[in-house]
Write a structure and sequence with these properties.
Length: about 110
Amino acid sequence: MEKKTRTAKEAIYKERSLEKVETEVTTEIYTYKSLVDEANERIKNALKNQDFKGVKIGQTMLEAACKKVNEGTSHLNKFRTEQKEIEKTKRTMLDFFCSNQSKKQKK
């Protein structure tokens, strides 16, 4: 019973940690998506003015921002997989505790 309680506490702690990191990563993704928009605008304006140096700068910004968005998305997918495992653990713990309560009430 003590081991089950410890496992439940660890799952809750890990879940809270993941939620915090997920929020940070989501914020980072939105920041880089803004950079993507800015890079696209820079490229559009540079092409309009035939400023090929500006196009190159915009392209570099775009590549870096897209890379960061993809990394962030990959991290979010990993977090969601871990969250599913935590939910599974929590359900198992809840079932265990509920069955123990039922047994105690029947006695």
